[in-house]
Amino acid sequence: MEIIKHDTNINFGGMIKPAGILSFVAVLLSIGILIVQGGPRYGIDFVGGSLVQVRFNSPVTPDQIRSAMAQVDGGGGASVQRFGDEHGSEFLINIPASGSAVSLEALVDSISAKFNDTFGADGFEVRRTEMVGPKVGRELRQKGMLAVLLSLAGMLVYIWFRFELRFGVGAIVALAHDVAITLGALAVTGAAIDLPVIAALLTVVGYSVNDTIIVCDRIRENRRLMTRQPLAEIVNTSINQTLSRTILTSGTTLLAVVTLYFLGGAVIHDFAFALLVGFTVGTYSSIFIASPLLIVWENLAARRTGRPALKGRAA
Amino acid sequence: MTKELKWKAALIGLVLVATCVCLLPTFVSVPLWWPHALKERTIALGLDLQGGIHLLLEVDSGKAVENAVERYASELEELLFEAGIPFDHVSKTSPTMLQAQIVDAGKQEAFEGLIGRRFGNMSVAAPKKLDDGSLLYSLTIQKEEAAYIARMAVDQAIETIRNRTDEFGVSEPVIQKQGEDMILVQLPGLKDPQRAIKVIGKTAILEFKLVDDENSVDKALKGDVPADRQVLYQRQVNPSTGVVSQIPFLLHSRTLLTGDRLSNAQVRIDSRYNDPYVSIEFDSRGAQIFERITRTNVKKRLAIVLDDNVYSAPVIQERIAGGQAQITGSFSMEEARDLAIVLRSGSLPAPVSVVEKRQVGPSLGRDSIERGVRATLLGGLLVIVFMCVYYRFAGIAAAVALTLNILLLMAALAAFRATLTLPGIAGIALTIGMAVDANVLIYERIREELRLGKTARAAVGAGYAKALSSILDSNLTTLLSAVFLFQFGTGPVKGFAVTLSIGILASLFTALFVTRFIFDYALSRWRMQTLSI
Hints:
Number of strands of chain A: 4
Number of strands of chain B: 20
Structural class of chain B: alpha+beta
Number of domains of chain B: 3
Largest sheet of chain B: 6 strands, mixed
Strand order of the largest sheet of chain B: 12-11-17-16-10-13
Low-confidence stretches of chain B: none
Number of helices of chain B: 15
Helix content of chain A: 55-70%
Radius of gyration of chain A: 25 Å
CATH topology of the largest domain in chain A: Multidrug efflux transporter AcrB transmembrane fold
Strand content of chain B: 15-25%
Strand content of chain A: 5-15%
Largest interface: A-B, 70 and 73 residues
CATH superfamily of the largest domain in chain B: Multidrug efflux transporter AcrB transmembrane domain
Oligomer: heterodimer
Helix content of chain B: 40-55%
Structural class of chain A: alpha+beta
Distance between the termini of chain A: 35 Å
Distance between the termini of chain B: 23 Å
Shape of chain B: elongated
Low-confidence stretches of chain A: none
CATH architecture of the largest domain in chain A: Up-down Bundle
Number of helices of chain A: 9
CATH class of the largest domain in chain A: Mainly Alpha
């Protein structure tokens, strides 16, 4: 069985312009959404605050919870969200650390007490509470950003070491593109950036580089075989030769992620969503952006030095 | 079978047996002859899967330094008395500094000698001569000493918290230092987490102070507090109305005896009213001090103060020898038991505050496992079906490798006692999707070689050889990002990094070695001429 015919020869190098424009617009939109929102929407992991996950035994509307929360000292700024099932009676209550005098810890206690009064002691179950102090949140945010940046740098160094710097530059541009669009998609759905989401971003980085490296490997190999063809052709041939593999592996990985997204439960919903978007964009970018950028880079270098574009040579 | 193939078969068989030996204790109770080292090694579930609390406590180590400076001040006072050096006052002027005013300038040498001998960890500046001829000294605690006290405070707090959790009967608690002044506490599967947090975080400084009945409390409350006196409150709950009231007490600031001198604390029941109280016992030095206090202060009231709250202030009827006392108050049984626990385990050297708390109820944990496992199984099944349909015989080989991969991954989790978390389960699901990548790379290469007209055997050989470098490169980068993840992550995220890393390593073995064996076996045993791929 074959999904991608083995003699497929799509001119990916020639599509760099439309692909570039598409990606540029997508990245711009993502950044725009983030700016309009006033930066990424961080979860309590990164800004501090409290989170209470409650399940009610009888149907309760978010407004009922909101009005109960309004009577809790310091609970005014809470956001109430239905969690999991569309019609279930499980809710997520988010209370940002807004410098109120009430300590976050005491707040969770008083919420339980208030719910006891309003809904009855047997009417609800607190399934999860989280409290992150602002200082810890700041630390986690810095560490998270550092981890993402370091892993990008690590990838660059790895590719530089194993291949060449210009391969690495294309890969990093593609990675930054993947991360930006994933963040944009998260912003659109209103998902908060928390620790698992950062974990998903890091995984996306690793995975996307994966795809790029497979193509780079093939380019390196083909340069030894196709010594007379221009680089553009070599790159294009390499992308086509690995296309079937790229599609298949993305397919099986997405299969696993999609089942996680639909069946894995609400707790890892955002995590699975970030992976879903990241992997999809990552596959696209390694085909249409990362490797074709090599050709652009070569052409620019050729124009600057006045020499003809490089041809294949023994690496 | 050739000799080489036999060796490979033996190796794979060995790995399979080792996998089962590691994995079985997690799922069934194993017989006695099972390898001893592995019997206890089961897959440990993270807090997010079995329920429990994760706490990050910050030790106010600056307060520990401040306490030490305060202690030095009273020590210095006593030593000056003993040495006969007249002084106006010794007092703490900042958290790291104290001030001493020596009345007689002629005692300068004696004073400085005393400081040099007994307070080597304080630095002394040249004294300021005051108009009345007295000398004003400033003593600052040295940086190294302050750092040492702060470090000790954290270590001692860890010790105390460990004692308290042990008393509480938590199975497998994690208590470790994090960073400079933080303590990570993880308590799996607790019935009443709020109570545990209260017990763990209680400073529990027990002090005995005399009540000042000569001066008026009301005057003190209006701001006219006499020297060396303080106002502390007793919290009382009216049992019938539930109204909480605060009763003020005017106390002598000086602490006569502290909880450091306790040797035991037990809950007892009052035979008359059936009220629980805490009976405390002093060690021999504490008993002596207690006897002296009670002997010299008969008919006065002695306040029992815990963390600046007055618990009771009974009148001393007579001298009490034997070193036994009672702390009464309107306790519930549970409160009395918790108080006994904190008194037995000693006080925290400095107050701690909860800076991070994550708590998962057992029902959510169960749900998470159920859903995570279901999603992973279905994902695995879909991938296997896809591989078998797409690559036929070669797909079956990949499916076998994938199954072995997951078994290996779980066996490694058990053998290393790694913790499985919900993101960790997601990591397994992801491994399933990614592990077939190596097989896809190889199979696509074999197909290419076959199209070039190579024989089945040659195509398999070339396919594996040519795909190797890509496979290694791509797996290494994923491993690299998993390492970054592990470095930065907390509990659940770390679990994800762990399963992802082990999954990648295991897939190198199964996808490269095991599938190759299946191909070679099929080619030589069944004399397969064409490949079903």
